[in-house]
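ugh ok so i messed up the first submission bc i forgot one of the chains. this is the corrected input, ALL of the components this time, i swear. 191 residues overall. if the numbers dont match what u have on ur side tell me asap before i send this to the collaborators (the ones from the other lab, u know who)
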Amino acid sequence: MNKLSRDFYNQDTITVAKALLGKHLVCRFDGLERIGKIVEVEAYLGAHDLACHASKGITKRTAVMYGPAGFAYVYLIYGMYHCFNIVTEPEGSGSAVLIRALEPLQNITAPTHGPGLLCNAMGINLSHNQHDLLSDTLFVADNLTPELTITETPRIGVHYAKEWRDSLLRFYIENNPYVSTIKKKRISNKT
DNA sequence: CTCGGGATGCGT
DNA sequence: CGCATCCCGAGG
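and heres the new structure output, hopefully the right one now
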């Protein structure tokens, strides 16, 4: 399994975001190796991006985003869901890529079609904040990715971000059924 | 210290 | 559309 390098994450955030599509997120917790293919991401462009938490400056919460690339930024949202991000660009930029959806590949039993859901399914929580993505327990593998058609849309849930609200910074693999906004039929048995 | 909102998801 | 539910940043 070919782990993505520090240099990869150190690139421009939009470049990293798009390049992460189709790659494999690997979590080795609890004696289990879970793997999911990244099918949806969002780019958060540092201090000037009003949708980015780093736009509040360097705080206890955002410090990791201002650190070196290739580290995890995990936070709790709405009191119940975790969101998993990967820090990008050289130290001081405050940028990151939010992983929004996965396609289950191995040992995944819960839904993964949203940022909170995939953290739950992968076992990612606040203890993984600031975790190094070059470690052996949590990383992205650079598998051979076939050519993808990438769709760009505005980011989800950032209506408050003024002029950044409509920037096309959400990227997903076209037609992939695990992308978050695809309306899911309720999983229920109609008899 | 209090207060208010949020990079969500699910049910109605 | 409402709500669960809690961390964090702002302000006094």
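quick check: The beta strands of chain A are 24-29, 32-45, 72-77, 81-88, 95-106, 138-141, 150-153, 170-173. that seems consistent at least. The first helix of chain A runs from residue 6 to 9.
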